[in-house]
Amino acid sequence: MRMRTRTLILGIAVVVILAAGGAVVLAETSKPSAIPANATVITVTGATVRGSLPAGFEGLSMEFRGLEAYAGADSTAINRVFEQLLRNLSPNQQGLLRIGGDGTDWTWWPVPHVAKPGGVRFDIDRNWMGVAKSLAQTGDLRLIMGINLEANSSRVASAEANAMLTYVGASHIQGLEIGNEPELYGSFPWYKAANGTHVRGRPASYDFSDYLREFSTMARAIPGAPLAGPSTGSPTWMQDLPQFLRAEPRVRVATLHRYPLKHCGKEPLVLTIGELLSSSSQAGLAASVARYVGVAHAHHIPLRIDELNAVSCGGQRGVSDTFASALWGLDTLFELARVGVDGVNFHTVPRTINELVSSDLSGSQWSSHVHPQYYGMMMFAQAAPAGAQMIRVAGASGSLHVWATRARDQTMRVTVINEDPRRARTVSIRLPQPHGTATLERLSAPHLGSTSGVTLGGQTFGEKTTTGKLTGTPHLDSVKSNGRSYTVQLPPASAALLTAPSS
Fold this sequence. Notes:
The chain is an alpha/beta fold. The chain is built from 11 helices and 26 strands. Helices cover 24% and strands 29% of the residues. Strands 1, 2, 3, 18, 19, 20, 21, 22, 23, 24, 25 and 26 form a 12-stranded mixed β-sheet that branches. It has an 8-stranded parallel beta barrel with strand order 4-5-8-9-12-13-14-15, surrounded by 8 helices. Strands 6-7 form a two-stranded parallel ribbon.
């Protein structure tokens, strides 16, 4: 579905130019107009909010079983569609993929003469390691890889880590993440015994001090490798991050998890799009980790939210799988970058409501279905390239969110998000200095609850993509400035990216 271009400026000529990806349709204005009286005035001040965004800021997180489901089981023929979808999130830079999640403690590298731990459901082998290595090599990725802690065995942890270092290679590993959300070990069952009873990995009294002691034991069994942790999503356990980093100087990446909405209880919860797009799910989520940025940086290491998605425990239909999640993800990435977070990995699990992309193999042909949330992530990758600085913005409020970046070449990019499902917005964007004619790329869908029909710059992945690239004719608005101001109209439930190259 192609979005119809709207403009407030008279005298329009449609210009078609040829670009590397084919024809680009520009709706070009012949002259700028005065700022409409009903416009919300946004001022980009030029003051820097944070330093340069690091390479690999945005990436994916997956379970151990997910690797071959997404990338394929043949290390000599990696799924190029999935590889391209990863590249789209870190264009022209090295990306970062996290392999962990719940599967961290359900996985092991078989150890001779050691019985398989009760909670282990998946064996990794040399073929799996070969797939991980090939994906890292061809996709230009660094990896954060989980190590089983719930088995509480140094031999198991050591064997798994050594296999990763040997067969994947230390050069591809950013950090080995010991355990996954250990605060839940005493609450959630690890496995079901033969008699049908549920067995927890730890007693209900298990606390942070117990975890730290076990982490240190496992770390001593993994000599020489960089570590990551504490891999917790508990606000209570996050408060112990200073103690954790003081005790474990080999941790090279501090990792936390965040989900704004929970869907893990026994009773079915009814979550709404309104809750997802609330301030508490966006700015509030970022505020919940802001203090820990300083903690990590005081230890000269990055803080990464290496597991994030809209709704925990697989998501909720009608929320996680809608266009609303694209706008939520786009805004939340900026919120996390604003408070100084050094990277974010969105968690995707095959065949769940929270899945971001899928992989299907027919004969020798791979294809993927791309879910709405991914489109918002892709717009962020365009709006915040590696090395760009976030610039202070004034004038946005309510359901209108505005973010600005300045790239190394001085190109200004302003992202405007209208989360109101009914009200269109007219926005006048004033930059700190003249930039000449800008281009406007739109992110849109029929409505907030749409599960299909999403377009980015007039393009789409369609029902299935066999390339991992957007298709269709790119459709951009060309917007001339009125001095230093650009006027943009946003339909309800949409976003737009204004790109103003340096004069």
